[in-house]
């Protein structure tokens, strides 16, 4: 048992150091391409990769409900605890240089529109056919491509502004290398980290592994993202928009590319190219929370009270999920 605890702490330390390096690298990238492209696309893609691995292997093995539960749980955690952590840190003494409120740029407010569109598209497509097929997956993937292209155009504008002002754009080669290297490191660490937590549940806490998977798997897969966001805002509250964009990009990614890949993985894994039962209670809750977050972001500013409001919504999500999961045996459909 002591070795298990030591292994868990060591893996946690690797994730922490990797997240610190990523936060410094993305700050450098934001100086050149802006907070939106650096936070939403580059950092969002790197930090969401552990979640992709969990969902990929679950779908590959035919565990569709586990994949949907992991994807929706992670997105819900980002929209609640993630945003709350950033807001509270940026507006309190948890930051070395706090701000009174987080002001969002016009581009970030447009990102909130993509957040709304991808959430509604995923819900509509999943409801329309009773699940997600290859065509649905392609549509969701194209939505993410449109989102990435939009932010890339904004990044090019940011680079032109540097040239027009006579400033030399900051060199970002080493920042990109650091971001890619630490991202790969965290990908390799994520699986043994989750396994270590499961063993802790079995051997230390004696908790059901199903409960551990539902509650702690998203926490493990999203830890790099939350740590990176916290460390970025801890240094300076004015950098909060980078972290906000990171979470927006990740949730847009969850609602489009991550869900869209599931029928393709099922097809190449030898299963039917159709993933049924996607719209479960947690999916409804995730969609509702995403819509609330989209509205809050579209206003253009985030205040301290919202930093406590979003985590409270996560507690509501847990309560609703537990309540809806208590289905009497007599009402279960026959096998």
How would you explain this protein's 3D organization?
The protein is mainly α. It has one domain (2-98, 111-168, 177-323): A middle domain of Talin 1 (Up-down Bundle). It is 81% helix and 3% strand. It has ten helices and four strands; from the N terminus they run αααβαβααααβαβα. It has helices at 2-47, 49-60, 64-91, 106-129, 134-164, 173-205, 209-235, 240-268, 281-298, 304-325, and strands at residues 102-103, 131-133, 274-276, 301-302. A two-stranded antiparallel ribbon has the order 1-4. Strands 2-3 form a two-stranded antiparallel ribbon. The longest helix has 46 residues, at 2-47. The chain is globular, with a radius of gyration of 20 Å.
Give the total of beta strands.
Answer: 4
Question: What is CATH's topology name?
Answer: A middle domain of Talin 1
CATH architecture: Up-down Bundle
State which percent range the strand residues make up: under 5%
């Amino acid at each position: 048992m002591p070795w298990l605890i030591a292994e868990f702490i060591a893996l946690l330390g690797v994730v922490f150091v990797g997240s610190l390096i990523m936060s410094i690298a993305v700050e450098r990238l934001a100086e050149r391409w802006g907070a939106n492209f650096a936070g939403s696309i580059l950092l969002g893609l790197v930090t969401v990769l552990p979640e992709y691995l969990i969902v990929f292997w679950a779908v590959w093995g035919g565990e569709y409900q586990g994949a949907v539960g992991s994807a929706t749980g992670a997105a819900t955690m980002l929209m609640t605890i993630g945003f709350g952590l950033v807001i509270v840190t940026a507006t309190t003494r948890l930051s070395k240089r706090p701000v009174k409120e987080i002001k969002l740029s016009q581009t970030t407010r447009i990102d909130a529109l993509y957040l709304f569109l991808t959430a509604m598209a995923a819900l509509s497509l999943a409801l329309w056919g009773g699940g997600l097929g290859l065509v649905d997956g392609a549509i969701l993937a194209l939505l993410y491509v449109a989102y990435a292209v939009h932010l890339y155009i904004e990044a090019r504008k940011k680079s032109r502004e540097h040239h027009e002002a006579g400033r030399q754009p900051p060199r970002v080669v080493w920042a990109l290398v650091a971001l890619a290297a630490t991202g790969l490191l965290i990908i390799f660490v994520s699986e043994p980290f989750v396994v270590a937590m499961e063993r802790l549940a079995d051997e230390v806490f004696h908790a059901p592994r199903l409960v551990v998977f539902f509650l702690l798997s998203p926490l493990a897969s999203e830890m790099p993202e939350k740590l990176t966001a916290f460390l970025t805002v801890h240094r300076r509250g004015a950098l909060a928009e980078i972290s906000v964009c990171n979470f927006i990009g990740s949730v847009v990614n969850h609602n489009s590319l991550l869900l869209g890949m599931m029928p393709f993985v099922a097809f190449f894994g030898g299963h039917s190219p159709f993933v049924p039962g996607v719209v479960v209670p947690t999916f409804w809750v995730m969609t509702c929370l995403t819509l609330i977050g989209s509205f809050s972001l579209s206003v253009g500013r985030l205040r301290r009270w919202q930093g406590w409001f979003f985590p409270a919504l996560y507690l509501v999500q847990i309560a609703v999920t537990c309540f809806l999961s208590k289905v009497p045996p007599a009402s279960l459909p026959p096998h």
